[in-house]
Write a structure and sequence with these properties.
alpha/beta; eight-stranded mixed β-sheet; four-stranded antiparallel β-sheet; 13 helices
């Protein structure tokens, strides 16, 4: 019996386009324990959000899970009917989407949208659901809760909408909260408040969080465990302090090197050279090889697999393979 809340094993989600097949998520394995915050980090387009969408069953109809297993407390999410998935979404697993303005329904009031999961999953009556909705608005730090409950999304600021998204997500006290770039486009003060709020709710309910971000500052502040993705694959993963202090994969090293250092003046910020390859033109190789300063001949023709590079750290890089170390 696993001690994980969420188990993702060898997940592959593909998109079939007129130009070809896009392997948005390719053989991804990760786990989330009860009460743990796992951060998925990487550049835009690396497969972070599609991994989250696949967990929720929201990748369809454009994307298709072609392989793997997604298990929530032993329940295989991929074998469930649409109705069974709908019963779990919002109750056992909830998600804060990246763009609150486009995620909320513009023709329903804020109160109606918070009430919906309360009435659907907890079977509350309209009066009790409205009372709980107002309490949730207060809980996420918004004043004039009754007035806000009667407002429409376009009447609120971005920071307030993000708080409303959090209120909807935590309304049924889910076991797992997926937060997809929850602080994008918010100023640093609001960003800090949102992160504090997530930490507080996690501590109060022993909720697990799967946090998707490209901001390493957020990772350092929030994560217990970090998963680094590149071109749909996991290239490194490990406990947050170990990964920050001893990054093994050249991509992880580049990400950390590109972050500004407080109180240290720099003429120019470091950036990883080159571009992310076209997902339609990927070959049997290390996908990072064209941008890597350590690139070897084997990197161009064979894909490295994740292997242990520490006590609780894995990396997919030929630098740590026995046959390369032995034969050069």
């Amino acid at each position: 019996m696993t001690d994980h809340l969420l188990d993702i094993e060898h997940l592959s989600t593909y998109f079939y386009t007129e130009e070809g097949t896009v392997k948005a998520v390719d053989d991804v394995t990760l786990h989330v324990r009860p009460g743990e915050t796992v951060c998925i980090v990487g550049e835009s387009g690396c497969g972070k959000s599609i991994t989250a969408m696949s967990i929720m069953g929201l990748q369809e109809p454009a994307g298709r899970v072609v392989n793997g297993r997604i298990s929530l407390e032993g329940t295989d999410m991929l074998t469930l009917s649409k109705n069974a998935k709908r019963a779990i979404r919002g109750k056992e697993i909830a998600m804060i989407f990246q763009e609150p303005m486009s995620s909320l329904n513009p023709v329903l009031t804020i109160g109606q949208q918070i009430m919906e999961p309360l009435m659907e999953h907890l079977k509350l009556g309209k009066k009790e659901a409205k009372r709980r909705a107002i309490k949730l608005i207060e809980q996420v730090g918004i004043s004039r809760a009754e007035q806000i409950a009667g407002s429409y999304p376009h009447e609120l600021s971005g920071g307030m909408l993000q708080r409303i998204m959090i209120a909807i997500a935590i309304s049924c006290k889910p076991k797992l909260l997926i937060a997809d770039e929850p602080t994008t486009a918010l100023d640093v003060t609001i960003q800090a408040q949102i992160l504090d709020m997530l930490r507080q709710f996690k501590a109060e309910s022993d909720m697990s969080i799967l946090l998707i971000t490209h901001d390493l500052g957020v990772v350092a502040e929030m994560a217990d465990y970090v998963v680094v993705m590149y071109c749909g694959k996991v290239v490194e993963q490990g406990e947050v302090c170990e990964l920050f202090e001893h990054p093994k994969h050249p991509y992880t090293q580049g990400l950390l090197k590109s972050k500004p250092i407080l109180n240290q003046r720099q003429e120019e910020l470091y950036s990883i050279p080159g571009q992310v390859p076209n997902p339609l033109e990927l070959t049997e190789s290390c996908y990072f090889h064209e941008r890597c300063q350590h690139c070897m001949d084997i990197c161009r023709v064979r894909e490295p697999k994740l292997k242990n590079v520490g006590e609780d750290q894995q990396a997919a890089c030929w630098l740590y393979e026995e046959e390369v170390l032995t034969h050069g």
